[in-house]
Design a protein that fits this description.
With 371 residues, the chain is an alpha+beta fold. The protein has helices at residues 11-22, 30-38, 46-60, 65-74, 89-99, 104-114, 125-130, 132-139, 148-156, 169-173, 179-184, 191-205, 209-220, 225-234, 236-240, 244-249; strands at residues 258-264, 268-270, 274-283, 289-300, 306-318, 323-331, 343-351, 354-364. The chain is built from 16 helices and 8 strands.
């Protein structure tokens, strides 16, 4: 079994934090900090542990935020000297997110200094929520920073729907203010940054599909392989949904004179095993076709209705008269993000976003009888 995430914050880490802060603040009460930050720690989950340590920082750092910020900034690693780093900085993020917005520029500067040592994407969002225009004015200046972590913070911290983080409803409603940031980073030399740009665009596509499809169309002509990958990754939700402009951006037009067959090796699947199937596509037309072939499993829900989930399969090109068979096995096994129910499911083949063939199958659950 993997180590529980909550164990990333533990008593030894708290003691180490205390020593690293005290090295830059002689008045810092290490013993009180450790006592407060570890009181009941073992019973808490990850974010609860982080909040407990944050509250210990509230109690032991100066009430004056500029003084506290100076101590925390001095406590970061520098010139080979150890300092606050890694998971120690999760509660520091929470400390800055709570008190920093009242000292706007200072708080943002501290998060910028922190992010090379641990992501600051969670801490920055209350600043954007408090005063979006002012925050984005500062963050926009980070796109040319020599540190890749700072550049990534400019895109990742402004994602409208960043997972596990505060949502930014103004940017969900109107993402236009962050498009200049994403445009400036679209050809960043670091894949680490470009992936963040792609993920932000994919976030936006969930609420503004036409906007993102148009953005991709504007930036795809003459794109380098790196930029083209970014744009396609940014379009993944749109492509799965068969958005016409998004498909056209990558050469996947309507496939005419195409036949598609789907064959299941068995109409019943036992949970824990796999659904084996074969897709055969044939180009019966007179022109070559680029094809993006996906499939959707329509899972049975608790109320008996079906809920589709699209999975990537294969991208191929078929010449006139050419046929291609694709064999796949789809695992039907336990995962943390889905609960499976027995009953009649459906699998559908999507060719360039259009459903082209489908079959039903029955998912059965193993017997729980002891005998």
């Amino acid at each position: 079994m993997p180590e529980p995430l909550k164990n990333l914050l533990h008593e030894a880490l708290v003691a180490d934090m205390a020593n690293r802060i005290a090295a830059h603040a002689s008045s810092f009460d290490k013993a009180r900090f450790v006592a407060l930050a570890t009181d009941g720690l073992e019973a808490l989950e990850l974010m609860e542990r982080s909040a407990l340590i944050r509250d210990a920082l509230f109690a032991t750092l100066p009430d004056d935020f500029p003084q506290a910020a100076a101590i925390l900034k001095a406590s970061l690693p520098a010139s080979g000297r150890p300092g606050l780093t890694g998971w120690m900085l999760l509660p520091v993020n929470q400390f800055i997110a709570t008190r920093g917005p009242d000292h706007f520029d200072l708080g943002l500067d501290l998060l910028k200094a922190l992010t090379p040592h641990f992501t600051a994407e969670f801490g920055i969002r209350p600043f954007i929520h408090r005063d979006q225009q002012r925050a984005l004015a500062s963050i926009s200046g980070w796109v040319g920073d020599p540190d890749r972590h700072v550049r990534r913070l400019a895109s990742e911290g402004t994602r409208p729907r960043l997972p596990w983080a505060m949502r930014l409803p103004q940017l969900v409603k109107d993402p236009a203010p962050i498009l200049p940031i994403l445009t400036a980073l679209i050809d960043d030399p670091e894949d680490y940054v470009r992936r963040s740009v792609a993920n932000s665009l994919n976030d936006i596509a969930k609420d503004h599909p036409d906007l993102v499809a148009a953005f991709i169309a504007t930036h795809i002509d003459g794109a380098s392989p790196e930029r083209r990958w970014l744009l396609k990754h940014a379009s993944r939700t749109l492509l799965k949904k068969g958005h016409a402009q998004a498909l056209a951006n990558f050469g996947f037009g309507a496939a005419t004179a195409l036949t598609c067959e789907l064959r299941l090796l068995s109409s019943e699947v036992m949970f824990g095993e796999g659904l084996d199937f074969e897709i055969r596509v044939t180009n019966a037309g007179a022109v070559e076709h680029a094809l993006m072939i996906d499939y959707a499993i329509h899972h049975v829900k608790a109320d008996g209705s079906l809920s589709p989930k699209v999975f990537k399969c294969k991208t191929i090109t078929l010449a006139p008269g050419q046929s291609r068979a694709i064999e796949r096995r789809h695992a039907m096994r336990p995962i943390t993000t889905r609960r499976y129910y027995p009953g009649q499911h459906r699998i559908a083949v999507l060719v360039n976003g259009a459903e082209s063939a489908s079959e039903s199958f029955v998912l059965r659950m193993p017997s729980t009888d002891a005998g």
